Amino acid sequence: MVEGVIASLMWLLFLYNTLLTRFFKNTNASMVLQGEYCLNKTRNGKVDRRNATEVIVVGAGVAGSALAYTLGKEGRRVRVIKRDLNQPDKIVGELLQPEGYLKLLELGLQGMQEPILIDAQRVFSYVLYKNGKNTRLFYTLKHFQSDVAGRSFHNGCFIQRMRHKAVSLPNVSIEQGTVTSLIEENGTIKGVQYKTKGGRESKAYALLTIVCDNSFSNLRRSLCDPKVDVLFYFVSLVLENYELPYANHGHVILAYPSAILFYPISSTEIRCLGCYIPGQKVPSLSNGEMALYLKTVVAPQMLFISIFTLIMMENQLKEKITY
Length: 323
Description:
This protein has helices at 4-25, 29-32, 62-73, 98-106, 115-118, 155-167, 220-223, 289-298, 307-320; strands at residues 40-41, 47-48, 55-58, 78-82, 95-96, 121-123, 125-130, 133-138, 150-152, 172-185, 188-196, 201-205, 208-211, 232-240, 249-253, 260-264, 269-278. By secondary structure, the chain is α+β, with helices and mostly antiparallel strands. The chain folds into two domains: 4-119 and 154-223, FAD/NAD(P)-binding domain, CATH 3.50.50.60; 232-320, no CATH class. The model is unreliable at 1-16, 25-43 and 45-50 (pLDDT under 50).
């Protein structure tokens, strides 16, 4: 799960370098501005060519925001529509690998993860634990500049920084709205129908529409198999003001039924992630089932953690747990 950011960035780079570059190279500028479907009109009905949208991006996560910024730098007029523009609270994509950091540089998105901006922490290697023993695995970074390393942070802070970077370009806009369907004419997607933040039904048109929504998007039925099977859950919590045995390292406990991860997400917070819970039902917090599961299944396998840490986990469980 912690590979989510790098996977999104690498997929974005592939998408941009192949499909999008080829698309725009084969489309001359006059075509972009001619179709009625990709033009906005003024109140008197005249076409406003200055504000014509070339690309609609549905979603403003890692992929959507980075794509909007990259296309905007190329001079494309991009309109991003996102259901909720509040800072997300997710446990996916909190540890950016060095390769992901290099992709940020390649896309011109450097600075998104720097400590001064989002309290990001450098990660230089991992420590693996099993049966009371441990070993360290280092990134191969000797051929790179000193700033190239992993970065761990609050995913939501990282996403917000990327959104701000995208809208810093005058030809990129981000609007809060819920896309309900794609507008299709003669087998061609012409845009999207959506509800504005105020609940008004609206339509947006562009030459190209790209969906960067998540796996639970209501657009899945139009694009692929809409069925999503939930086979298991990961539970996480945050430990505050605690130091791991190795600073600036990810800690991986090879446990059962899944690995358990510890890594810093700020200068004062440690994420505990990976309490794998199979099935469709999550143990209840209110009646103590979750605390019992962590004590009896998870805690006994974390030999390197002190009793003090286990007490902290129990005390912070109700406030900090995330699914």
